[in-house]
Design goal:
The chain has one domain. Helices cover 62% and strands 10% of the residues. The chain contains 16 helices and eight strands. It has helices at 2-61, 65-92, 94-109, 132-135, 139-149, 172-182, 197-205, 227-237, 257-281, 295-301, 310-320, 341-362, 382-415, 421-429, 435-461, 469-498, and strands at 124-131, 157-164, 186-190, 213-218, 222-223, 243-250, 291-294, 325-335. An eight-stranded mixed sheet has the order 3-2-1-4-7-6-8-5. α1 packs across α16 (469-498). The protein is globular. Residues 214-408 form the Glycosyltransferase 2-like domain. This is Glycosyltransferase family 2 protein. The chain crosses the membrane at residues 43-62, 68-92, 471-495.
Length: 510
């Protein structure tokens, strides 16, 4: 009997071990499958982009000279349109820049007395959005700066530190909540179950704070002390203004060569392109940070957590309802640029895929009618519709135009690699047998160069204190290569969208 019992126990133990081993193998298989799926999702876009370049370059090597000439002409003309639109935006930005300087001069002459008395100012909720594991080293510094340096009546201002974290971070979190005891206008909110900036903001929009306006800042920003006042004055001066987007300036331009080039790029974008586009096409856009919204509109729209660039999506949804967005160059804020190529690559890939998402979603604004317009008698005119076409379709298509032109040049190097300076010169200008082709292409080439030089010259006139003329010269020299690099990132973003890549990679801060 005893032997039988012992035998029974052995069988039971063997059965339990078998089940445990089976379960363990199942979870190992699941883990391996998950890793394989993640690997495929991560590297499939890379394979698609490489295949695109290899196929395109090889295709051009087999084309006849006549067909290559046609392609060359098409790419030069389309790139000339893009360059021409860019320089036109730059020239259109001159007036907003002059007006911004004029307003500052007038305020200075009056001893920095703003038009609106303190008692008549709007109530402002200023939000600093943070993801703590990534921004734990800078959040206290930015919060204390905002609480102490922003020049706005304390009874009209609330600084909201809005953060999420997957695990407790002490003593930092306790120190953050301690700010509420030290500063009467501080509010610290840890958002439960949040995994993104959109979740943080949407949670805040459910709170009844009694504010008239909401300002959104990423955690790495230092708002200029007078920025909130400048923005609020714009809302008071024009009751139909729904959004005020300020100028973002990179202040760590001296850290690395990459950050210096990004600083020049941001001056070009925020001081030239954005105000110029708003003047040319008749609409502006919220850009994610240093933006001021009317509270009612922002709470109504909220943020779409399914979008990688929820800020651009919200800006386009606001425009689809006829919102009025103005770009104010006096509403300045200082932010950090990525200092490593890896951080830059992750940031711009997320932006590229996010823009692709937003472009596909909102391209219908080219032809549809505004739904639930915010203002009476609003209609989307031809200029605004063409501006949307340029922003969402032509801009996304430009990635292919630039890279196809690059592939064409690579095919020349493969088939006709220059052995002397004279041959290189001939290759650059591509001496076609037909003289009219040569004349037209050279003319377009020269105009593209003139457009780019003019844009960068205007950028030099409005550069920030953290950008030197040397930086702009270096930016100009490497700009053609930078355009190609950004086009590659754009293609990569499209490839990620094709495979439904959904990982969110926050920009590294330190």
């Amino acid at each position: 009997m005893k032997e039988h019992n012992d035998f029974t126990v052995d069988i039971g133990t063997t059965q339990a071990d078998f089940e445990q081993t089976h379960v363990k193998k199942f979870w190992l298989f699941q883990d391996a499958s998950t890793r394989l799926s993640a690997f495929i999702a991560e590297w499939t876009p890379f394979g698609l982009v490489v295949s695109y370049f290899v196929f395109s370059t090889c295709l051009y090597t087999y084309c006849s000279d006549e067909l290559v000439a046609i392609f060359w002409f098409i790419y030069m003309c389309t790139n000339f349109y893009i360059a021409g639109a860019t320089v036109l935006e730059a020239f259109m930005s001159i007036t907003p820049c002059r007006e911004a300087r004029k307003v500052v001069t007038q305020a200075e002459e009056k001893g920095w007395l703003f038009p609106t008395p303190h008692n008549n100012l709007l109530i402002l909720d200023l939000i600093i959005v943070a993801y703590l594991p990534n921004e734990k080293d800078i959040i206290m510094d930015r919060a204390i700066y905002a609480l102490e340096q922003i020049d706005y009546p304390k009874d009209k201002l609330r600084i909201n530190i809005l953060y999420n974290t997957p695990h407790p971070i002490e003593p930092l979190e306790s120190e953050l909540y301690g700010l509420e005891e030290k500063y009467s206008h501080a509010r610290v909110i840890k958002v439960p179950n949040s995994t993104s900036k959109a979740d943080n903001l949407n949670y805040f929009f459910t709170l009844d704070t009694g504010s008239d306006l909401i300002a959104i800042y990423d955690c790495d920003h230092y708002p200029h002390p007078n920025s909130p006042r400048w923005a609020v004055e714009r809302f008071i001066a024009d009751p139909e203004t729904d959004i005020v987007q300020g100028r973002c300036i990179v202040f760590n331009s001296g850290d690395t060569f990459l950050s210096s080039m990004i600083a020049v790029e941001f001056d070009k974008i925020y001081a030239v392109s954005h105000p110029g586009r708003a003047a040319m096409w008749g609409f502006g856009l919220f850009c994610g940070s240093n933006g001021y919204w009317r509270t009612s509109l922002l709470r109504d729209l909220r943020m779409d957590g399914n979008m990688l660039t929820e800020d651009i999506d919200s800006a386009l949804r606001a425009f689809s309802r006829g919102s009025k967005t103005v770009h104010d160059l006096n509403v300045t804020s200082y932010e950090l640029a990525p200092t490593t190529l890896s951080a830059f690559w992750k940031q711009r890939l997320r932006w590229a895929q996010g823009w692709a998402q937003a472009s596909m979603k909102h391209l219908k604004m080219i032809y549809n009618k505004p739904l639930e317009p915010l203002h009476d008698n609003y209609s989307r005119d031809f200029t605004a519709r063409f501006g949307i076409l340029s922003l969402l379709f032509i801009r996304e298509s430009s990635y292919y135009l630039v890279t196809q032109y690059t592939c064409l040049v690579l095919s020349f190097l493969i088939v006709k690699f220059p052995s002397s300076g004279a041959e290189l010169w001939k290759l650059v200008y591509f001496q076609y047998p037909v003289s009219q082709w040569l004349f037209i292409i050279r003319l377009v080439q020269h105009r593209i160069i003139i457009c780019l030089v003019a844009t960068l010259w205007i950028t030099n006139q409005v550069k920030s204190e953290f950008v030197s003329r040397k930086m702009i010269i270096l930016f100009s020299i490497q700009y053609p290569f930078y355009l190609v690099f950004m086009a590659v990132i754009g293609l990569y973003g499209h490839a990620r969208q094709i495979v439904k890549y959904s990982n969110w990679n926050p920009t590294a801060r330190k």
